[in-house]
Amino acid sequence: MNREQALEFLQRSLGTGPRYQHSVRVLETAIILAHKYGEDVTKVELAAIFHDYAKLMPIHELKKLLLKAKEDSRLVEYHSELWHGPVAAYLAHREFAVEDKDVLNAIRYHTTGRANMSRLEKIIFLADYIEPQRDFPGIIETRELAEVNLDEAVLKALSNTIAFLLTKRSAIYPDTFAAYNDLIRNTKRLDNQEKSRKS
Ligand code: DGI
Ligand code: FE
Ligand code: FE
């Protein structure tokens, strides 16, 4: 499936309205990040196009597909906002024969992140967060970090999201914390290495 075919499938699910337009901006942003950080552009395109494929499905449909996909059973205990990524990964595999595990994981984990994210997963997560029409508190700093350091930018986006969820008194899905903890440890380790190199 090429990029144009994938976009056509996406349009069948989302129409051509705001959610489709968001996906196109995520696609454009993710391609820029792919060039900057040396990721396979074809994979990035596929993951970006499908990341919100299931976003407009009714909640009962998402729930049905989650069960069918034999997904993490904890998901149903969390906000339904978290379901569209796993369902999109399931449908990309089942209906559109996307086989690449890394692409499927980038779709699957685009809302929460997780520990040990691949470069592709980080790029999709970040592109979704910083696409040009996004306006979150702290977005400017996240965009600046995205220019220079992929891990620091993802960490910033995760921190912002966690802080936002705290203000809403929302439950926070464990993978979101796992992603944060993993990146905090890695960046601290690099900081310490840098310090001992200089001393
Ligand atoms: O689908 P998009 O709107 O493009 O973006 P997204 O897939 O990142 O979804 C964003 C929403 O998901 C946003 O309202 C924050 C929420 N979210 C992210 N991580 C968590 C979460 N919500 C809960 N309850 N728990 C999380 O861990
Ligand atoms: Fe999403
Ligand atoms: Fe999105």
UniProtKB/TrEMBL annotation:
It comes from the Bacteria. Keywords: Hydrolase, Iron, Metal-binding, Nucleotide-binding. The keyword Metal-binding applies. GO terms for molecular function: bis(5'-nucleosyl)-tetraphosphatase (symmetrical) activity; metal ion binding; nucleotide binding. It catalyses: P(1),P(4)-bis(5'-adenosyl) tetraphosphate + H2O = 2 ADP + 2 H(+). It holds the Pfam family HD. Its EC number is 3.6.1.41. PANTHER family: BIS(5'-NUCLEOSYL)-TETRAPHOSPHATASE, SYMMETRICAL, SLR1885 PROTEIN. InterPro entries: Diverse_Catalytic_Enzymes, HD/PDEase_dom, HD_domain, YqeK. PROSITE patterns: HD. SMART domains: HDc. Residues 19-133 form the HD domain. It is an enzyme of class 3 (hydrolase). The keyword Nucleotide-binding applies. It comes from Lederbergia galactosidilytica. This is bis(5'-nucleosyl)-tetraphosphatase (symmetrical).
